[in-house]
Design goal:
Oligomer: single chain
Number of strands: 7
Distance between the termini: 33 Å
Radius of gyration: 18 Å
Strand content: 15-25%
Strand order of the largest sheet: 3-2-1-4-5-7-6
Largest sheet: 7 strands, mixed
CATH topology of one domain: Rossmann fold
Low-confidence stretches: 1-8
Bound molecules: S-adenosylmethionine
Number of helices: 11
Shape: globular
Order of helices and strands: HHHEHEHEEHEHHHEHHE
Structural class: alpha/beta
CATH class of one domain: Alpha Beta
Length: about 280
């Protein structure tokens, strides 16, 4: 399960430049989930695909597609013959996503578009389904962005939004706050947590349903945890002394935990239908 987080108050140009020019920082956070999740947990991307429950042959927009991991790692959960438009405000992400989706060899058509979720360059009612996975906590006005998703959906079309639950990965963020200051909580969930996503979507869509999946990380490498916590603000701007402090705190927490830091996590999806 990915857990990408960025603090609030970041302007879009800085967000693009410092976070998402390419997938390196996202990779540092995803690495924790890949290496330290339980082996019996469902694959996050297959889970998204199953929950989204897209019809065969649908015309689909994935906005904030990132490097397209969903379309490669999740392909077992998607019907074949989807017509994909992979969009992101980072050209580097769009390029990577198109490559990943083509490599999957599972889709009828794959197109990449550089686009901002708040002002989509698509006609009204042009998609059967729109996905916005772990990205609406980046926008200044999530409700406005959701209205854009509704505008480009045909009546009855599917909207599926993923994000982190409030309280997600608390021990990780407590360590970050102890070293760098700031809130001891997941900034993505603070801004656009699952419950808020559901409330906003209930105002705009029909048949809104929230589902979630819980998991656990048992992180045994202080280096990997430090890399994740320095991949977004405030850790990405921390000086050497603060990073060394985080490293010491992490090592101490690991010793106290018998060699691992246990981090419970919860993320999920809110799915709905555009009004008919
Ligand atoms: C945390 S990543 C999620 C990537 C992918 N959806 C996933 O779940 O793996 C957030 C993505 O949203 C993109 N993004 C952020 N703000 C955006 C905006 N206003 N419009 C379009 N894309 C945006 C970023 O460039 C990044 O690729």
């Amino acid at each position: 399960m990915s857990n990408p987080t960025v603090g609030s108050g970041v302007n879009p140009a800085e967000l693009l430049d410092r976070q998402y020019r390419d997938s390196k920082k996202l990779e540092a956070r995803a690495n924790l989930h890949r290496r330290y999740g339980r082996s019996d947990e469902p694959d996050w991307f297959v889970w998204i695909a199953q929950q989204a429950n897209l019809p065969e042959g649908a015309k689909v927009l994935d906005i904030g597609c990132g490097p397209g991991w969903l379309w490669e790692a999740g392909k077992a959960g998607f019907p074949s013959e989807l017509d994909l438009t992979l969009a992101d405000f980072s050209a580097g992400m769009v390029e990577a996503a198109v490559e990943a989706a083509n490599a999957a060899g599972h889709y009828a058509r794959v197109e990449g578009v550089v686009a901002d979720v708040s002002l989509l360059p698509f006609a009204d009612a042009s998609f059967d389904a729109v996905l916005a996975c772990h990205m609406l906590y980046h926008v200044p006005d999530a409700s406005l962005a959701l209205k854009e998703l509704r505008r480009v959906l045909r009546p009855g079309g599917i909207v599926a939004v993923t994000t982190n639950a409030e309280g997600n990965m608390a021990p990780l963020y407590a360590l970050g706050a102890a070293a760098f200051g700031g809130a001891p909580s997941d900034p993505a969930a603070d801004i656009f947590g699952l419950n808020r996503a559901k409330a906003l979507m209930e105002a705009l869509f029909d048949e809104v349903v929230m589902t979630s999946v819980a998991g656990d990380l048992n992180v045994t490498s202080a280096e990997d945890l430090v890399l994740a916590l320095t991949s977004f603000p405030p850790g990405q701007d921390a000086d050497d002394a603060a990073v060394a402090h985080l490293y010491e705190l992490t090592k101490a927490a690991m010793v106290a935990g018998g060699g691992a830091i246990h981090i419970p996590k919860v993320s999920g999806m809110v799915r709905g239908l555009a009004p008919r």
